[in-house]
Amino acid sequence: MKTIMLLIIVAGFFLAGCTSSKNKGDSFSEERPASTGDKDCSDFATHREAQEFFESADSGDPHGLDRDDDGIACETLP
Predict the structure, then answer these.
(1) Does residue 38 sit in helix, strand or coil?
(2) What is the mean pLDDT of the segment spanning 44-72?
């Protein structure tokens, strides 16, 4: 009897974890655009595109797009 109760409890935790994990993934994809990995200036066609991405960052310059720290990203792009 104790074994059956334990199996039911474990199954409940497993199912709850699977459900919440799926929901977290769904909400993350809705909150932010799909931009995975590190970005470099070569990933952008224009300075304007790079600047918009740079300004949308939560904080700082995690991608290193503003090498001289003047607030302008990928200055050499057209």
Answers:
(1) coil
(2) 91
